Amino acid sequence: LEVLLRLGGSFFLAMQERRNSFSLSKRSACRILCLGESTTADLRSQEPYPALLERILNQRNPGIRFSVINKGVVGITTSEIVAYLEENLNKYKPDMVIAMMGVNDSGFHVALKGNARERGSVLLKNLRVYKLARILLLRLKTKFESTSPGGTDKAVEDHMLGYILRSKFLDDRMCVLVGKYYRKKRKYAQAKDAFMKAAELNPGNTEALLQLGKFYRFNGEYPRAQRFLERLLEIQPGNKEATFELGWLYRDDGHLSLAKSTLQRGLSLEPENVREYLLIGDFYAETGDAQGAERLFKKAVELAPRDDDTYYELADFYRDQGAYSLAEQAFQHSLDINPQGNKALVGLGYLYLSRDQFPQAEAAFKKALGEA
Q1: Mean pLDDT of the chain
Q2: Are 245 and 213 in contact, with CB atoms under 8 Å apart?
Q3: Band of the pLDDT at 165, cuts 50, 70, 90?
């Protein structure tokens, strides 16, 4: 397969160089070098954009002659383009360079300049089988996000993904993409294997470490989850999602004091995360820290004063604490924002029941049922 792909690629490059030689043979005052991927190479067009650019420039500027060199390569990444930039500049000596790139990167690190290490990695990435695998995966990405579970297409995709995971031309970013696909389809064991493969290929892949931490926490394997999350935070100490995840892991594992300090650190990293204020508020209330819980709920209300759910959560907290007047006020605030908020109406109804205010409770429940 590699040989066949290379033969096809060699034929295309030969044709491209023939066109470039024709452009170079022209006497011109301005030489333009076009670098890029398939959008520049444009195998399907009789006139790729560099050729079209040359024709238009020469038609509209009769006083200046232009020659445009097409160095587009199908499947090439930005790192590869940068690695060979100096060579292309020395070979073609252009007056101007146009670069259109980035589509094939899919999260790859891009070096600021071509170096020996980068060019070494280019040797692997230049394998046509490797590029074919990447192109197939990128084409599947759109389908993964738009198709529903089931059907023969899914079986074919699963087979291809399994092949990609076993391929020696694999990279960690591909594995993460495959893992997210499996997770979305609730194939958690396959997702875990893909994320683990990503972490093996690149121990510094923070997304893979995060997903493994989540997987093992969900399955109650707290020490393993903790190792992945702590490794992530060593690499990226300011990772907000990992910090919150580690805090909740400590909570699940019974380390309540450590959980609180870690979750507070998460809030310091993301001080406007309303959802986390509410969740952590519930946690504080469950552990008997009513004062801390009230502070967190009030902060959520302060951050989202037009969100009826924040007032509902504050009201629910006050009701559980027996602060019925404060609970009633918060429920009313929630209903002022959303008069049809059934959750707040039901909460208010139960509050009235606990105070033996039966007519008010009946009215609230009827309104929630749409009978008022």
Answers
A1: 80
A2: yes
A3: low
